[in-house]
C-alpha cells in the first residue's frame, strides 16, 4: 500500500446531493486522503472564487 496522500476536489451541486457528498467525503477520509470542496471557502466574491479555482488546479483528483 502506498503512503502517498492525495487531495480530491468534490465537485457537484450541494443541496440535492448532500448524502452522496457526505459518503464521498467519508470514503476519502477513511483512505487517509484530503477532501476539498467549494463549501470550505464559499464563493461570495471574486477573491474567494480565485482561491477555489487554485484548489481545483492543484487537486490530484476531481470527483
TrEMBL record:
Domain of life: Bacteria
Species of provenance: Prosthecobacter dejongeii
Protein's name according to its UniProt entry: DUF4062 domain-containing protein
InterPro entries in UniProt: DUF4062
Pfam families referenced in this protein's UniProt entry, alphabetically: DUF4062
Domain DUF4062: 8-61
